[in-house]
Amino acid sequence: MNRILLTIFVALSLAGALALTNITALADGAKGVAVQPLTPKAGDVITVKGDLLGPNSTVEVRVIGMGVDIDLGEVDADANGDFSAQFRLPEDLKPGTYQVRATGAESATTSITVLGIGGGAAGEGAMGAAPVLKERPLGESLLLVAVFGAVSAIGLVIARTAREKPAKA
Amino acid sequence: MENNSLNRQQSSIVLEGQPATVTAAVGVAAAGTGTGTGTSTGRGGLGAVGAWLDDRLGLSALRYKVPAHANTFWYTMGGITFMGIVVLVLTGLWMGQYYNPDPVSARASVIYIQNTAPLGDIIRGVHVWAAYLVVITAALHLIRVFVTASYKVPREVNWLVGLAMLVLLMFGGVFTGTVLRWDQEAYEAMTHNMELASLLGAAGGFFSAGFTTSVGMLPRLFMAHVSIVPLFLLLFLIGHIFLIKHHSLSPTPAQSDAGEAPHGRLPEEKETGHYPTHARIMVGYGLALLGLAAMMGIVFPQGIGPAPDPTMEVTKPPFIFFWLYAFEDWFKVQGIFYAAVVVFGFLALLPFIDRSPWRALRRRPVIMAIGVVLLVAIIVLSVMVAVAPVKSHLG
User: Fold this and answer.
1) pTM
2) Are the beta carbons of A55 and A127 closer than 8 angstroms?
3) For chain A, what is the largest distance between any 2 Cα atoms, rounded to a whole number of angstroms?
4) Do A6 and B366 touch (CB under 8 A)?
5) HSE on the CB side for B23, CA within 13 Å?
6) How far apart are CA B303 and CA B395, in angstroms?
7) Which of A15, A98, A126 has its CB closest to that of B105?
8) Which one of B280, B331, B356 has the shortest CB-CB distance to A162?
9) Cβ contacts (< 8 Å) between A152 and chain B: which residues?
10) pLDDT tens across B55-111, in order?
């Protein structure tokens, strides 16, 4: 029995190793589209890069979402189906999340978030600078740790003192 | 076997020749007043309010017998995990009142929770640390089941259900929760999500950005985090608990290998523990877990990273994913997928590979060796990633 288990383990290990070897070949072989920056403002220029969307195909790039479907333009892919091009977003694009879809012989989609003036919706600064988080005073932190430490201790006491009554047949 | 007490109660009902529902109520009430047979399944000790509630809710049905070892720490690990999930639901409900899944406002709403919402930073700290602790206790529960071979006949399906819950907690719960923060780490996590989805081909469509153009990934991942994942977790949990009740708690390896538990079940007379004790231990440790999560949240407060820059990859995932991140270092994003498939695939196949009748670890040397290798590998890889600099894998 142990020999059978050992055989299965070796087979699984080999299968795993083969799978891991195989994935190195897949690593750079996926079709896709990428946009920079990810969080543009309306009217900004974005760079759209596509991979493996069909050799020498004409790729149409569209922005879809928030109730609109806008043709940004077309670009010719190279012999690998790759391309990189810049497009300007419409000035009147509303803040929100959009899909950027590139369609040649193949199609790929990614997401962008269009920011409002000031970098976010309602000027809240979303996706903006690093946030300043409230710091708790040391004394308050120690007090809270003590309180929750007591909660933990009570829990442990409850668990450890749970008495088992003798079972009746 | 845990439902034997109920079966016994029903047997006595038949003997008394009265309608089952009526007699059950009488039997319970009699036990409550001390005039009944006084079996361990009664509700002795309940006050008038307790008796009133019991008549209507049947709480005394929970007073069934369990094996004595059910009330030990390791056999309570699943219950502790359950209590942690309860903490996650309660804190999540609270945070859901303040979180805005619109990508434009999401990060600001997390900052609001942290800085402005009442008790926001504490609740968020509890939620995040409880999530990590739940994954850890679920993993410890899995290790206990692995070590005691409790996945064997007739509990193979329940092992799979439990494994599915662990996967759901890790990749459904913690992963999607990471994205909701919508900072640099969140963005990188979401990009990984989309790249992995592309690996799955048609099956990954639901998880990819291209699945729909009507709504972005963040609202969809939020919906998954607060709706899809909890729903499936609940369904699996119901199934898990039902199967535990149906098969009774597994015997110890010593009991099983000594032939004391035919077909993996202890006979009724050897079930000398009680579920209320188990529940009390579970609640106690659950309270301890809550306190620990809160203390961790205060000592190691949850930050919010810088705004995402799609041209950079500068963060590591939460530490529970470190071991997978090592494979990503070696084999790019696909490494995560294949490593997870190999590890969880092996665990899923385990009950069907390890078919010997023995349950003591020393009688299962090959399985023990594989388990030790897996555990050591996960720990070593996690430490390696913890001390290594960030590498870029995307694009």
Assistant:
1) 0.74
2) no
3) 83
4) yes
5) 15
6) 27
7) A126
8) B280
9) 287-288, 290-292, 295
10) 999 988 988 999 999 999 999 999 999 999 999 999 999 999 999 998 888 988 999
